[in-house]
Amino acid sequence: MVLFFSTIFFLFGNFVFVNAIPSVSFFYPKTLTVSSCTNTHSWTKWFNSGKPNTDKDFDQESLSIIQAKYGRDVCAKPQGVQARTVTALQTDVNYSASWQTMTGIISAFVSQTAGVDFQIRFCCPNTGFVTTTVSPPKPIDDKTCGRPKIKPSVGLTRIFGGSYAVPHSWPWQVLYEEIRSCDTNKLCVDTCGGTLIDSHHVLTAAHCVHGKDLSKIFITAGIHNRQKNESDTRQQRQLDAIFRHPDWNNDTLENDLVILRLSAPVQLNDYVRTACLPGPDPRPNANVILIGWGSEHIDGLLSDELKQTQVTVIDDCDKYWDNFDEDNQICVRNMISGDSACDGDSGSPLLQEYNSQWIVQGVASYIDDCKTNGNFLPNVYVKVSAYLAWIHSIIRQKH
């Protein structure tokens, strides 16, 4: 699994001189600090309402735009603001910014350095958040997806690192394998998980796909134990096309999503089925299921048999991960057992049952360690619902 590290920043008044550090930050008013927004006030999540289109554009984060788009997540009259960079920075450069105010309230942050993208959050009174009407969740259109013939066992009994799944009870889980040269005259196989979303397409993480040679990539459906033959259940396919998300960022792992089009459709049966694309999003504290063949510790051996575990969706994940984006990502952990995704689980689904159908709510993106309790950080999954328009645009090309 991919590791992701927190950023560090240093402040020097209104100008920030960068010396090989990953991020810089500005506060308004200048006396505001991260720790001073407490008690009767709270920090909002991070917003990124505007992005420079070229290296000559100047970023601007506007309160009115953010309130219009994310009304329930921000207050009407913030008491202060923090802005920080989210793009890679050049060294030995002075970074500066300015603020726009209206009747004493901050109305916009404006970068004075071309091409640099910022995100912003607000220090808000706990009683001052804007309330908006939340749209009801979209129903699941397909009545056949997400219904396994062989029922999974998802009781609360578990061992550390999860438990072995009932064979073929997650029939949309596929094994991704990519052959590459790793040493002189040697070949290695990179392994990830993935999810069948229809008979032609697999959803997985963009960071799983290393090369462009379609002949080196194999997708196996109907698999439970990697070391057994299982010839009566398995279907293996190569690829016809790879569709990485157009905004995929290999450095920050933003938009860590790819759709793989199979060279020939799989045959749907008792062992190979499709998961549902999201209707409703999982709420904080909801129980969800992670599956995969990943190891139990970093650099460990993969599991031969498919494993599963139950974890909990958490909110306020930006407390743990600086670049966490609530609109596009989901955070999960298990504070009791510490169960977690691990090496080899990248691209595997986060699943939730809704009206007797299983939904792929997330795609495994990055972790801190193979534990999520105590001082270990939660797992981060791509929020599939945020990408439905893009996913459907790819799928429709085949139909």
**Percentage of residues assigned to helices:** under 10%
With helices defined by DSSP (H or I, 4 residues minimum), what is the helix count?
A: 2
Q: Kindly name the structural category.
A: mainly beta
The separation of the N and C termini measures 33 Å
Would you count the extended β strands for me? 23
Helix/strand order: EEEEEHEEEEEEEEEEEEEEEEEEH
pLDDT < 50 runs, ≥5 residues:
1-21, 131-136, 156-160
Which outline best applies? Answer: globular
Domain Peptidase S1: 159-396
Keywords: Disulfide bond, Glycoprotein, Hydrolase, Protease, Secreted, Serine protease, Signal
Organism: Adineta ricciae (Rotifer)
Protein name: Peptidase S1 domain-containing protein
Question: How does this model look, in words?
Answer:
By secondary structure, this protein is mainly beta. Among the domains are: 124 residues, no CATH class; 107 residues, Trypsin-like serine proteases (Thrombin, subunit H), CATH 2.40.10. The protein contains 2 helices and 23 strands. The strands form 4 sheets. Strands 15-14-11-12-13-17-16 form a 7-stranded antiparallel beta sheet, with helices on one face. A 6-stranded antiparallel β-barrel has the order 18-19-20-23-22-21. A hairpin with a 2-residue loop joins β12 and β13. The longest helix has 9 residues.
